[in-house]
C-alpha cells in the first residue's frame, strides 16, 4: 500500500482507514501526532475500543493474537496499537510476520516505534505487512522544514509572531518539536490577540533546543557561526561525549579534503559525491565549505583535530569547551594561526 510522510497522513485518513499502519522514525512529536490522528479517525468511524501493547522480552503474544482473533459478533470494533522497542526479542520477527494473516475489517492495527524508517523497512516482517499497510515515515525536520512547521502551528493557534520572533523561536527550539509545540501553546494562552516580537518572546521563552551532532555538522558546513556555536553549546549541555563531536568534525573535514583534492585533479565533484555517499540534499552544504576552505587549510584542520585527540586522551586539556569552540571556529572560517592546539606543551 501507500508510503507517506507525516504531513500526508491527514489526507489519507479522510479517504478511509487502512487495516494496518506502520509508523516509524526518530522524531517523537510527529510520530505521536500521527498516532493521535489515527485514534481520532478511528473513534469517528466506530472503533470505540483501543488496546495498547508494548513489545518487550516479557511480551505475551497469545494475548495479542487472541485480541486479533476475537469475532466481531462478540467484540466492538477495535484499534490495537503495538509499540516496538529499538531491540526486538529473538522470536519477534516470526510473530510479527503472522500479523498479516490476522487482519480483519473490525480491527485497525498500528505498529510504531522510534527505530529509523529506512532501517526497519528492510526487515522481513515489515515487508510482509507493508502490502496491507499504510507506511508513515517519520524524519527529523531540517531548518527550512522546521521554520515552515513553526509558522503553520502558529497559524493554527492564531498566534501573530514577527519574523524576528520566528527566528528566535527556531534558534531556541530547533530539533525539539515537542518543546516548540509546548511553547507555542503556552504563548496562545498567555498572549492572545497580541503581536509577539523577539523582545516579548525572549522574556517568555525557555531554552529547549536539542540537537544531534549531525545538525552541528550541517551548521558548520554552511558557515553559520552563531547557529553552530549555539548547537555546540547545547550538545555539551546534553553531556554528549566530546570525542563524538570531534569524530563528526573529522569525518566532514576528511570528506572535504577528498572533494577539494579530486576537484584540483580535474575529477567531477558529482563523481566524488557519489563515491562518498553524500546525497544531493547535503551537497550544497559541502559546496559552501569548499568555497572557503583550501586544501592546505584543510590539512591544517586535520592536524588540529589530531592534536585535540592526542591531548584529550592524555587528559591534558584544561578547558575542553574552549578547545572544541576553537576547532569549530577554525572550520567556520580560515583565521590567522595565532593560537594552535599543536603548540600545546605536552610536558
UniProtKB/TrEMBL annotation:
GO terms for cellular component: DNA polymerase III complex. It catalyses: DNA(n) + a 2'-deoxyribonucleoside 5'-triphosphate = DNA(n+1) + diphosphate. PROSITE patterns: PROKAR_LIPOPROTEIN. Keywords: DNA replication, DNA-directed DNA polymerase, Nucleotidyltransferase, Transferase. Residues 212-318 form the DNA polymerase III delta subunit-like C-terminal domain. Gene3D superfamilies: 1.10.8.60, 1.20.272.10, P-loop containing nucleotide triphosphate hydrolases (3.40.50.300). InterPro entries: DNA_pol3_clamp-load_cplx_C (IPR008921), DNA_pol3_delta-like_C (IPR048466), DNA_pol3_delta_N (IPR010372), DNA_polIII_delta (IPR005790), P-loop_NTPase (IPR027417). It is an enzyme of class 2 (transferase). GO terms for molecular function: DNA binding; DNA-directed DNA polymerase activity. It comes from the Bacteria. Its EC number is 2.7.7.7. The keyword Ligase does not apply. One of its GO terms (biological process) is DNA-templated DNA replication. SUPFAM superfamilies: P-loop containing nucleoside triphosphate hydrolases, post-AAA+ oligomerization domain-like. Belongs to the DNA polymerase HolA subunit family. This is DNA polymerase III subunit delta. It comes from Arsukibacterium tuosuense.
Amino acid at each position: 500500500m501507500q508510503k507517506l510522510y507525516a504531513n500526508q497522513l491527514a489526507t489519507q485518513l479522510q479517504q478511509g482507514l487502512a487495516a494496518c499502519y506502520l509508523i516509524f522514525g526518530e522524531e517523537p512529536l510527529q510520530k505521536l501526532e500521527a498516532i493521535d490522528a489515527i485514534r481520532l479517525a478511528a473513534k469517528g468511524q466506530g472503533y470505540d475500543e483501543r488496546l495498547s501493547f508494548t513489545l518487550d522480552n516479557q511480551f505475551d503474544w497469545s494475548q495479542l493474537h487472541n485480541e486479533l482473533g476475537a469475532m466481531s459478533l462478540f467484540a466492538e470494533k477495535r484499534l490495537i496499537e503495538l509499540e516496538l522497542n529499538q531491540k526486538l526479542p529473538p522470536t519477534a520477527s516470526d510473530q510479527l510476520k503472522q500479523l498479516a494473516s490476522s487482519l480483519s475489517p473490525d480491527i485497525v492495527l498500528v505498529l510504531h516505534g522510534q527505530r529509523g524508517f529506512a532501517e526497519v523497512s528492510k526487515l522481513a516482517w515489515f515487508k510482509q505487512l507493508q502490502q496491507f499497510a499504510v507506511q508513515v515515515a517519520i524524519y527529523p525536520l531540517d531548518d527550512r522544514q522546521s521554520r515552515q512547521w513553526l509558522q503553520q502551528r502558529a497559524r493554527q493557534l492564531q498566534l501573530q509572531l514577527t519574523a524576528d520572533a520566528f527566528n528566535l523561536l527556531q534558534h531556541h527550539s530547533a530539533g525539539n518539536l515537542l518543546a516548540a509545540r509546548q511553547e507555542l501553546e503556552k504563548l496562545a494562552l498567555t498572549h492572545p490577540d497580541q503581536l509577539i516580537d523577539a523582545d516579548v518572546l525572549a522574556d517568555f521563552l525557555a531554552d529547549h533546543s536539542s540537537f544531534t551532532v549531525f545538525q552541528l555538522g550541517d551548521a558548520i558546513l554552511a558557515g553559520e557561526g552563531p547557529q553552530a556555536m549555539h548547537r555546540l553549546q547545547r550538545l555539551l549541555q546534553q553531556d554528549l561525549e566530546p570525542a563524538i563531536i570531534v569524530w563528526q568534525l573529522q569525518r566532514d573535514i576528511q570528506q572535504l579534503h577528498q572533494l577539494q583534492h579530486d576537484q584540483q585533479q580535474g575529477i567531477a565533484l558529482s563523481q566524488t559525491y557519489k563515491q562518498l555517499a553524500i546525497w544531493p540534499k547535503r551537497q550544497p552544504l559541502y559546496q559552501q565549505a569548499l568555497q572557503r576552505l583550501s586544501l592546505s587549510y584543510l590539512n591544517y584542520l586535520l592536524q588540529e583535530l589530531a592534536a585535540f585527540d592526542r591531548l584529550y586522551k592524555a587528559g591534558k586539556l584544561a578547558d575542553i569547551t574552549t578547545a572544541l569552540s576553537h576547532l569549530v571556529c577554525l572550520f567556520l572560517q580560515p583565521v590567522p594561526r595565532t593560537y594552535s592546539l599543536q603548540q600545546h606543551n605536552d610536558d
